[in-house]
Amino acid sequence: MERVEDFLKERVRLAPETTALSDSSGAHWSYAQLDKASDDLAAELKAVGVQPNDRVLLLVENCAAAVATLHAAWKIGAVIIPLNARQTEGEVARVVKHATPAAIVMTSHVSPDATAHATRMGAQEITGAFGTMHLAKGVSDPDPVLSDVAVLLYTTGTTGDPKGVMLTHSGVRFGGMASSGLRKMVPEDVVYGVLPMSHVFGLISVLVGACHTGAHVQIDARFSAQKLYDAAMGGVTIIPAVPQMHALVMQYTKEQGMERLGAPKLRYVSSGGAPLDPTWKRKAEAFYELPLQNGFGMTETSSGASATQNELGSPDISVGPVTPGTRARIDVDAPGGNGEEEGEVLVAGPHVMKGYYRNPTETAKAIDADGWLHTGDLGKIDEEGNLYILGRSKELIIHGGFNVYPPEVEAALNDHPQVIQSAVVGRTKDGDEEVLAFVQVADADRPDVEALRAFVKERLTGYKRPKHIVLATALPAAPTGKLLKHKMIETFADQLP
């Protein structure tokens, strides 16, 4: 069986001294150095009893040592569980209880949160070619179900059954190769790596794709608009990001008195995680002076399932055709479907997850008898085979008996020149659902709410217009920058009637 770590082995054979990784802690590693660092970490893991088919939990913020930990686990034949170190003690405990890892590695040298977890767990400091981190011993418990699994990614929050997505070595390899191919990646590329490694986008599209190619990943532990700006101006060639990151760096650049980025070597910019609207896409492309490529994927599909390869100025706002080897269809009879062309997006292919670890009930709900993954996303496919994502079926708002897709309302709000980004959610009241909008603005450039209402009124029919609009200088967001819609009402409860 071909395995993910074979990509690293091939890079060491072909070009061992090529730069693989650099990070904000000062690491600057060649592929040979990454290989040595992962060997040293593999020895530390073996010393505490980690065996093939064991689980290794990585409490991580982005750094070169974390990448070495991935390869160390794979070299042993263990499964890696990347989990953001900023998770709470309770959230970490739930994953530990469910996954029963044989070891827990913490990137304490770049993360105060990882250090706090290490202290709480009584972890031991370890050093080697990887630098200095912390390691806590668990109990070895090899599980043959995981013999072909490379990664377990947990997708649940603080409630509900844990859902550890089992991604196989073949699926992760497929995702990395697809990402490299879509971006036409070459060894000379410098890829900006701020998307969290605990997320499928950062892990597979960025890290595995770059390793397959032999490119250099420039890693940042945490996102900020200034860091992304500095990286672009400093020579990165590829920026994979989510729409919220693009919105914030555009606002940052505007505050510096510039309308365009003007990055000297940047050649590829992509957006994932949310639909695009034509006006915002044109604005972003004018800012980067490059086409903004869009794509669709999820944890359960080992990242990307479709992507565009458009020219600058293309009006296409789809997420493109499916990637080679992927199949997609629309279930128009699923909840949220219209019985005609719109419905739930179903995906099949070699990159679809094996299932949810130790959770056959949820696996059966997600993957049907014919192997189709039910994504929970609503979409449609046009005559040319391009997929359009309309929104999440669980986020669909039914107001007055009409379907309201939050991305459409967000697009209308985001068109306003004083709006940075927005999040639209539904709230049940008096037997109906209200449309609520939470809008991020700058303190020095705050729009009038009534003027914003009038702006939206020109773009949306009555039932789609927000009942209440809340203005804020920041909105709840995940480490990826993706807005946390489920926290909007709670966060701004005092501003809602």
Automatic annotation (TrEMBL):
Keyword Ligase applies: yes
GO MF terms, alphabetically ordered: medium-chain fatty acid-CoA ligase activity
Composition skew (Polar residues), residue ranges: 300-312
InterPro entries registered for this protein in UniProt: AMP-bd_C, AMP-bd_C_sf, AMP-binding_CS, AMP-dep_synth/lig_dom, ANL_N_sf
This protein's UniProt keywords: Ligase
Domain of life: Bacteria
Region (Disordered): 300-340
All copies of domain AMP-dependent synthetase/ligase, residue ranges: 9-357
Pfam families: AMP-binding, AMP-binding_C
Gene Ontology BP, a term: fatty acid metabolic process
Domain AMP-binding enzyme C-terminal: 408-482
Family, as annotated: Belongs to the ATP-dependent AMP-binding enzyme family.
Protein name, per record: Long-chain fatty acid--CoA ligase
Source organism of the structure: Sulfitobacter donghicola DSW-25 = KCTC 12864 = JCM 14565
